[in-house]
Design goal:
Length: about 160
Amino acid sequence: MAMREIRVVGDPVLRTPCEPVTEIDDRVRGLVDDLLETVDHEGRAGLAANQIGVSLRAFSWNIEDEVGYVLNPVLVEVSEDEYQEGEEGCLSVPGLWYPTRRAWYARVEGMDLDGSKVVVEGTELMARALQHECDHLDGTLYLDRLERSVRKKAMRAMREQLG
């Protein structure tokens, strides 16, 4: 297990859709260990594999004292009539938080290290994290979901921050 460095905006791995996990081997087991170790710190709600430089479909979460992971997650359901508006941030966009609209409920299906089916679902913060991490695996950042005027402000702040 290792605490891994977080990749930040500008790193191409964050904009590249991740490949599915096709074989559960020592590399994938090590990835899961690293995802769990790296997300298990205060202020971290979720972490996608590409955020630590691995372009595989896997993420971990740390919500309300529950830490877990899922391989090959697919966002299979979101509430279509109930939304939440709230400040959202990202470890790969450090220090910047912006109002981001997300579905109030989300359900993800994937698998665990034994190849067994996993269902992860939740509302509010868990739903936000599931949507956020699935976006990462598709090469999408939360900044892409901001309203145009807010996104413009966010991009300016990000450029200033990165120098």
